[in-house]
Amino acid sequence: MADDTSKASIREQINENLKRVYEDTLKEEVPDRFKILLAQLKEKEGGK
Q1: Which of 34, 26, 29 lies closest to 42, judged by CA?
Q2: DSSP 47
Q3: Residue 26 Cα distances to 22, 35, 42, 45, angstroms
Q4: 3-46 per-position pLDDT tens digit
Q5: For the residues of 23-41, what is the DSSP string, one character each?
Q6: What is the rounded (10 degree) CA torsion for 38, 23, 20, 4?
Q7: How far apart are CA 43 and CA 3, in angstroms?
Q8: What is the C-alpha R_g of the chain?
Q9: Which own/partner contact pairs does 9-13 have at CB distance under 8 Å and 24+ positions apart?
Q10: Residue 47 has what pLDDT?
């Protein structure tokens, strides 16, 4: 029983950490290089 509680606690910690990392990632700016590549792609598509 204690083993199940320990595993549940570990799962809870992992879930919390994954959520935190995911939320932090969503707040990050898109890198300039990626913005440039997207603009180039848009430009090419507009030329079709």
Answers
A1: 34
A2: T
A3: 6, 16, 23, 27
A4: 889 999 999 999 999 999 999 999 999 999 999 999 999 999 98
A5: HHHHHSPPPHHHHHHHHHH
A6: -100
A7: 58
A8: 21
A9: none
A10: 57
**Distances in whole angstroms, Cα of residue 46 to Cα of each of 1, 36, 39, 41, 42:** 63, 15, 11, 9, 6
Q: How is residue 24 written in tokens?
A: 């932090």
> Global pTM?
0.56
Q: How far apart are CA 33 and CA 16, in angstroms?
A: 31
Q: Which two tokens stand for residue 18?
A: 């994954």
